[in-house]
Amino acid sequence: MEKNQLSRRNFLERSALIGAAGLAGISALNSCSKKSKSVDYAFPPLLDKAPDGVKIRAGLVGCGNRGTGAALNFLAAGNDLELVALADVFEDKVWDCHSKLEKQKVEVPKGNCFWGFDAYKKLLDVDLDLVILATPPHFRAEQFDAAIQAKKNVFMEKPATVDPVGARRIIATSKKAESMGLTVITGTQRRHQRDYLETYRQVASGAIGEITSAKAWWLQSHVWFRTREEGWSDMEYMIRNWNNFCWLCGDHILDTHVHNIDVVNWFIGKHPENAIGFGGRVRRLTGDQYDFFSIDFDYGNGVCSHSMSRQIDGCANTLGEMVMGTDGYTNCKNTIFNPDGTVKWQYGYPKNKDGKSTGIVEVSPYVQEHIDLVTAIRTNKPVVEAERTAISTLTAIMGRTAAYTGQKVTWEDMMNSTERLGPEVYEMGPVDMEFPVPLPGTQHKA
């Protein structure tokens, strides 16, 4: 973080009372922790295109690259799908998105374009059936709750939130969505990806025997960052540089590695009981986050998963998952191996004109998740994924907390934590927050 840009006060704003949403979340998490792996996973129908039906009008909250991409993925999912409103904190982001959409022949009425911290509320007043939430994840819990209160179906990006208080609120809101018959799909696209789904089906049916261990990794070069421009307030600078500040994105163990953590939770069939690990910062130029994490998640009964996440240039980079069992192991994506390493099963990808495997699923998972969303709405068979994504997000938060503090952190610690990241008031201007890089051994568990 550049010197003298922000005043120096602790940036961890704690919430003393969890409130009704938090209590509901605790109940949900307790019930989830008792679940075990089951073959009865709710597989989506995996259509190439959503069935025709009632017109669905969507609004986009969060007009950055991912939000714009998600909107186009939604429009590609079927017929009679419209994008009719845009909202973002920044006016320039709204019009940049509007321009990109126009080039794709998507016309959003200019009167339905809003900006500011309350822009999402204005968007919810438009005649909509669906809201796409793609803002920095700090804002997800509040915006998700507002969308469900407004009786809108939702597509929301991962991670679900950045702190334990937010995770419990997401779960409580998820319960509301279920009771209201709404559909909520999240951006955990591997759960909508045909090769992952079929590999899971094989594993859940016993293809590798009893699961004994797992590992997951997301190792990549540094991600984008913004240097501060003249005239930017503290708040504007942080939001424009959002994936370098923990209060906005949750650190990269949430922002990217949550995908792999979610896959491991999915295949094992539950969340871990505790975590211990470490991380550090050696190369980052802005913000307050780590460059790397190494976490051991303990799922109980001797089953553990090792998670690695790193964003440093010039290193050996790769990403994926591996789950080991008594009768073999799998890369979770497309192959199951015998214990000796020979192939037991592989997913059958479409073939090209030469009869060779393309190695690509029939439909992009980024579009497939929206096909599944529209299908659920039009067939009146609601699907709500928010709770399970919040649980995987909270798993990542547990790992982050273990690395930041150097302590062993349990699931109960997460359920009881009052940690809330970020300011209490959102407004452009100076922000009285401090951004020390976490030092293990000097912090207590939240």
UniProtKB/TrEMBL annotation:
Origin organism of this chain? Mariniphaga anaerophila
Among Gene3D superfamilies, the record links this protein to: Dihydrodipicolinate Reductase, domain 2 (3.30.360.10), NAD(P)-binding Rossmann-like Domain (3.40.50.720)
The protein in question is named Tat (Twin-arginine translocation) pathway signal sequence
- Positions of the Gfo/Idh/MocA-like oxidoreductase N-terminal domain: 56-180
**Segments forming domain GFO/IDH/MocA-like oxidoreductase:** 200-308
Q: Which GO terms describe its molecular function?
A: nucleotide binding
What Pfam families has UniProt attached to this entry? Answer: GFO_IDH_MocA, GFO_IDH_MocA_C3
Q: Which InterPro entries match?
A: Gfo/Idh/MocA-like_OxRdtase_N, Gfo/Idh/MocA_oxidrdct_glycsds, GFO_IDH_MocA-like_dom, NAD(P)-bd_dom_sf, TAT_signal, TAT_signal_bac_arc
Give the top-rank taxon of the lineage listed in the UniProt record for this protein.
Bacteria
